[in-house]
Write the structure tokens for this entry.
Amino acid sequence: MTGPAALRRKSAELAGALPPLLADAERLAAMVLLGEHGRRHAGQGDEFWQYRVAMDGDEARNIDWRRSARSDVHFIRQREWQAAQSVMLWVDEAASMRFTSAKELTTKGERARVLAMAASILLVRGGEKVGLTSSANPPRSGQGQLVRMAQELSGLEAESDYGAPDTHGMRPNTRAVFISDFLGDIAGVQKALTDAADRGVKGALVQILDPQEEAFPFDGRTIFESMGGTLRHETLKAGDLRDLYLQRLAERKAALADLAHRTGWQYACHHTNDAPRVALTWLYHALERRH
């Protein structure tokens, strides 16, 4: 079937599958106050941004003589930066991201997807191009791209216990975001950040953990099993493992932070029982361009 009726039906089917993720991301994005200028920067665009007082070294042709005539000093008319940059996002789809310790808490994967979409919404509103490293679609701007990304993120799910960042879609000299619990083999993260550094890509690592993973509140006989079912450990004295576990977790966080620092990235840890607005605000500012 072709024609308007088929188009309306297809649009309705597409929209009907997406509202939960998009709606959650829109609400989260709305909580972040960007200020009047948001991510604007002075540059070679066409849209007026602001006036500034002329300084030594400014060329006479850049002076706004009409504005300067109303004052005792000369003013430069600055234009807004128009060159959109690309931000590529990787969201871990492994089984470990489906974990939550309480019904009232979101899973790590759900929080990761909402953060990725909310950040994408803010970036697009700021004139940026966004995309997923795992997607065949190139980074783009506009609402249509957000719809495509939401559709792809809504279908993410893998059977492997832990994931590793996918870097094949990253372009040189762009920016990237990796969101995961980063509890698997750290070698995958090391390779991804090394590849990114070789391409001149800078970005942010966001580690998402459940509060139970942070506290290790276990004692007595306990059976630990991975979400994918491939790892299993039974102990009669879980409490005896707490100190060693917390030490290993602290070492993993420190390793991620050090790796990010050495490759020019930034790192933050976020818990699913904390307000997502805090993580989104941090992520958004971590991606701010510097000219």
Residues 242-262 form the longest helix (21 residues). Residues 10-19, 34-46 have pLDDT under 50 and may be disordered. Residues 68 and 114 are 48 Å apart (CA to CA). The beta strands are 48-53, 75-79, 86-91, 129-132, 175-180, 202-209, 222-225, 232-235, 266-271.
